[in-house]
Amino acid sequence: xxSLGLSTVTATDGKPATTQPxxxxxxYLARAVAIAxxxxxxxxxxxxxxxxxxxxxxxxGVNRVTANLDPTxxxxxxxxxxxxxxxxxxxxxxxxxxxxxxxxxxxxxxxxWARIDRVHYAATRDDAAxxxxxxxxxxxxxxxxxxxxxxxxxxxxxLPAAERVAPFTEWQHTATRTEY
Amino acid sequence: xxSLGLSTVTATDGKPATTQPxxxxxxYLARAVAIAxxxxxxxxxxxxxxxxxxxxxxxxGVNRVTANLDPTxxxxxxxxxxxxxxxxxxxxxxxxxxxxxxxxxxxxxxxxWARIDRVHYAATRDDAAxxxxxxxxxxxxxxxxxxxxxxxxxxxxxLPAAERVAPFTEWQHTATRTEY
Lengths: 180, 180
What we know:
Two copies of one chain form a homodimer.
Chain A: H1 6-9, H2 25-40, E1 48-52, E2 58-62, H3 75-87, E3 96-101, H4 105-113, E4 118-123, H5 125-130, H6 135-142, H7 146-149, E5 154-156, H8 161-164, H9 166-172
Parallel strand pairs in A: 3-4
Antiparallel strand pairs in A: 1-2, 1-3
């Protein structure tokens, strides 16, 4: 990728690339794939992701689930968290996420909460399944088939109505709240 | 909750509760609701969650999205991350998650990756919507209705086949890999 100058553009120092033409989507994606492979050599999982902000800043993330003892440390989540810290905002509107693999439901929903504009990926959930990962299983969980839901039942427990919504009541009464 | 002794039992010091009967599910859930309300008074979002491990250790999390500039810092994710750090494992098999509100898709999938056994909640996605949160919108996104998918299109970009799966190939060739 260096022949494309992408290693410069994808530096994670938060500075916009100014000296070269912007990489193409395929070039960004190839970079996400490259850092995924590098991450395996660094005791990480085989996943990499890049967030490109509306103004062209680039933030990288790789899968550190087992390395950091954090099941949420997927590449996409890591890239989103890095981008938010780097931009100083919890809102990445206008950004594009490039992922070496189709985002799992956690990463897809993380992208929604981060207000990412669009997502591009290389490998599919089935490629991930072939490599031993549960992305496809968890997508089926979200499709709501009873047998798949059995791996983790979710149910409400009835509390008094006022107690159930007490946090929201407090929220509505808090004039200084920051909505998102 | 102190009259139930729950504040002692739910200390986050990682020690099993040994001096009192285990709280009931409703008592754990009430504690999750209580810390959600407290969190609003501490510049956080109106959500709280508790992970109870198979051996009775209790770990808390609250929503710090805007406070920490981290759109993934939902209560459930925070509690899962705390539990994994506290137990020294990325696998919480046997644990139960109690959340003040029905987990959003991100939190549900985080729970799946963490191998949580079951989830209980108090308020619903519709209660959250009434308070201005997008949980219900994002659930509809997962239901795949085209109009809802338009808020964040997801698509693959074709790379050469060997490059597309290169991270997984590296993974399969890495004898020291830690699977999850």
